[in-house]
Amino acid sequence: MSEKASKVVTKTQVARARVATPDDDLYAVAMLKVAMELKRSGGRGFDQVFEETLLALGVDRGAFKTYLDRNMSQLIKTAKRRGY
To answer: What is the end-to-end Cα distance of the chain in Å, rounded?
Structure first.
């Protein structure tokens, strides 16, 4: 049996695997836009920038928060790796 065929996939690995949706690209854009807008916020708070950005992009707040919850560990790893 090949090494690849002998690997066992756990339920946790299956649960972590997911198919990207078309909204994932929009959510990634929304995250970048929020970050850029925060840099030039002119005294506006995070909540205001967050809400304005989602409204401007037509992103559903609840769905976006679900996306963030689902991907938070990866976002944190990426930020740490890049030194943020």
So the answer is: 44
CA 18 to chain CA centroid, Å, is 13
> Which segments within the chain are labelled E, that is strand?
none
The span from the CA of 37 to the CA of 49, in Å, is: 7
Distances (CA, A) of 21 to 3, 6, 32, 42, 84: 31, 30, 18, 34, 27
pTM of the model: 0.60
Contact 25, 59 (CB under 8 A): no
Mean pLDDT by runs of 10 across the 84 residues of the chain is: 51 47 81 88 88 93 90 82 75
